[in-house]
């Protein structure tokens, strides 16, 4: 584990992590969300009728999971899961460098907001921007501008123009902090940590000894009566879960990093040799969901409006074809294919440029 590497560094270098450790820690934090999202998608695709909702609330599911995990790591190890994996901890900037500095409970609470709440809010704003930009590009915003709701349309347009500048400023501030940290003008690498008065330090030898004592499974069952053993079950189960969380999650994260590397551009050679196999047969037609929209009698009709399709668009998750405006609106409201209920998004729409479908 990385903390043991940090342990070897003790005494030879100062407590501040290098920019390489920080970049590695940040890249690991960004791997967790796609992994959770992929797991939820697999679950929703296995039974769209029962688990379809979980995909629609995927970001919220990730938010809850992230809260539980980060809260546990902040309380027990004084850092986020990725910081702990790389042998780092959060310390009060006022006490930095003193070795035994820890976080106040208020700083832990603020850290939790910065670790969980801020990325969630940023993600939601990014998604809103993408959606409004697509609506604007498809002329959906301008078609309503002359009539009611013009105030909201104006607000949406302003957001489309302003948001890229806000995003640019946000990213630039982070970049400046990184540069200042590299040239040792700043002791923190992030404006979020600066705002809550916290900086990162490497784990000390004492921290590692304390953490490994926390993770060890309790041997409380030896030398107890039956009644004492039964009463000890809840606390030992809690300790077991904590221990599994502490020891298991870094292993899961390591495998996620491995999978990320395997499918990355660095590993294209291995994938190309796999792609030289014979062309597989096409996948079977996905089954219409029990409470899904009924298929129309004629293949040229749109399953949603039941009229002859205009402006046809295929949904790549299921393969069914609809009118583009019909399916675009449906996806924005429901986030799934109307026929199969498979989780889908508007970026999975493929416009079909054909003159006559008959
Ligand atoms: Zn239609």
UniProtKB/TrEMBL annotation:
It is found in: Peroxisome membrane. GO terms for biological process: protein import into peroxisome matrix; protein monoubiquitination. The keyword Transit peptide does not apply. The chain crosses the membrane at residues 158-183. Keywords: Ligase, Membrane, Metal-binding, Peroxisome, Protein transport, Transmembrane, Transmembrane helix, Transport, Ubl conjugation pathway, Zinc, Zinc-finger. Its main location: membrane. The keyword Transmembrane applies. It is a multi-pass membrane protein. Pathway: Protein modification; protein ubiquitination. GO terms for cellular component: peroxisomal importomer complex; peroxisomal membrane. GO terms for molecular function: ligase activity; ubiquitin-protein transferase activity; zinc ion binding. It comes from the Eukaryota. Residues 26-265 form the Pex N-terminal domain. Belongs to the pex2/pex10/pex12 family. Component of a retrotranslocation channel required for peroxisome organization by mediating export of the PEX5 receptor from peroxisomes to the cytosol, thereby promoting PEX5 recycling. The retrotranslocation channel is composed of PEX2, PEX10 and PEX12; each subunit contributing transmembrane segments that coassemble into an open channel that specifically allows the passage of PEX5 through the peroxisomal membrane. PEX12 also regulates PEX5 recycling by activating the E3 ubiquitin-protein ligase activity of PEX10. PANTHER family: PEROXISOME ASSEMBLY PROTEIN 12, PEROXISOME ASSEMBLY PROTEIN 12 PEROXIN-12. This is Peroxisome assembly protein 12. The lineage of its organism: Eukaryota, Metazoa, Cnidaria, Anthozoa, Hexacorallia.
């Amino acid at each position: 584990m990385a903390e043991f590497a940090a342990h070897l560094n003790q005494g030879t270098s100062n407590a501040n992590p290098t920019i390489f450790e920080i970049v590695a820690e940040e890249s690991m934090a960004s791997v967790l969300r796609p992994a959770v999202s992929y797991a939820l998608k697999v679950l929703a695709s296995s039974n769209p009728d029962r688990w379809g909702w979980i995909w629609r609330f995927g970001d919220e599911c990730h938010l809850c999971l992230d809260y539980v995990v980060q809260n546990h790591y902040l309380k027990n190890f004084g850092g986020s899961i990725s910081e702990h994996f790389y042998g780092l901890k959060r310390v009060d900037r006022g006490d930095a460098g003193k070795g035994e500095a820890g976080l106040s409970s208020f700083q832990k609470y603020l850290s939790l907001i910065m670790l969980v709440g801020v990325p969630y809010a940023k993600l939601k704003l990014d998604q809103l921007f993408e959606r409004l930009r697509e609506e604007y590009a498809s002329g959906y915003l301008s078609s309503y501008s002359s009539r009611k709701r013009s105030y909201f349309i104006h607000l949406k347009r302003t957001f489309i123009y302003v948001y890229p500048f806000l995003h640019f400023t946000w990213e630039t501030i982070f970049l400046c902090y990184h540069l200042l940290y590299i040239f040792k003008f700043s002791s923190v690498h992030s404006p979020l940590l600066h705002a809550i008065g916290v900086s990162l330090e490497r784990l000390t030898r004492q921290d590692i000894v304390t953490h490994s004592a926390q993770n060890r499974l309790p041997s409380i069952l030896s030398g107890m009566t039956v009644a004492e053993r039964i009463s000890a079950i809840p606390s030992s189960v809690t300790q077991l879960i904590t221990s599994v969380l502490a020891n298991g999650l870094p292993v899961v994260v390591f495998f996620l990093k491995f999978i990320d590397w395997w499918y990355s551009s660095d590993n294209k050679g291995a994938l190309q040799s796999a792609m030289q196999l014979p062309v597989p047969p096409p996948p079977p037609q996905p089954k219409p969901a029990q409470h899904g929209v009924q298929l129309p009698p004629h293949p040229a009709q749109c399953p949603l409006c039941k009229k002859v399709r205009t402006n046809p668009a295929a949904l790549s998750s299921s393969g069914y074809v609809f009118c583009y405006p019909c399916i675009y609106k449906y996806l924005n409201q429901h986030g799934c294919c109307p026929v199969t209920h498979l989780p889908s998004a508007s970026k999975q729409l493929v416009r079909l440029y054909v003159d006559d479908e008959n």
